[in-house]
Design goal:
157 residues, alpha+beta, Pnp Oxidase, Chain A, 3-stranded antiparallel sheet, 3 helices, 12 strands, oxidoreductase, riboflavin reductase (NADPH) activity, FMN binding
């Protein structure tokens, strides 16, 4: 099967949008990602998937820590900044939790230390042991078929 067919099929799965952050040599780094999920309740583990060509791969390998920042619907520009879609020079605004940079005003900041990692094809899966969590109220930014979106109706039927 060709790559486009695979990518189109994966795009049919609606996801939230995260920015993965870490710090190396006193400098904060971030990248937009939607490959994130919870793994275990005991211990509390999550997994992120980082491509072999991503600059973030070496940074997490060296720092041993990362944060998953789940973006709110009004944070599309934050996502675009860390996805390299905004070309003008902008400084990101970070808070800090346990010495790890986190995205301000995200719905959730989940701070992790690397628990284990596994190379899988052209990505590395980092399993993170959750060290701290900050939650905020709001509605998530979504991603479907290569486009940002919003949840229109939060009522459950």
């Amino acid at each position: 099967m060709d790559d486009r067919l695979f990518r189109n099929a994966m795009g049919k799965f609606a996801t939230g949008v995260t920015v993965i952050t870490t710090e190396l040599d006193g400098e904060a780094h971030g990248m937009t990602a939607n490959a994130f999920m919870s793994v275990s309740l005991n211990p509390k583990l999550v997994v992120i998937s980082i491509g072999e060509k991503a600059k973030m791969l070496d940074k997490i390998n060296e720092s041993g820590t990362f944060a998953v920042n789940i973006l709110a619907e009004e944070q599309q520009e934050v996502s675009m900044l860390f996805a390299g879609q905004i070309k003008e020079k902008r400084e990101a605004d970070f808070d800090r939790i346990q010495d790890v940079p986190v995205v301000k005003d995200a719905l959730a900041n989940i701070v992790c230390k690397v628990y284990s990692k596994q190379v899988a094809g052209d990505h590395t899966l980092f399993i993170g042991e959750v060290q701290d969590i900050i939650l905020r109220e709001g509605t998530p930014l979504t991603f479907f078929e290569g486009k940002y979106g919003k949840i229109v109706d939060r009522q459950l039927t």
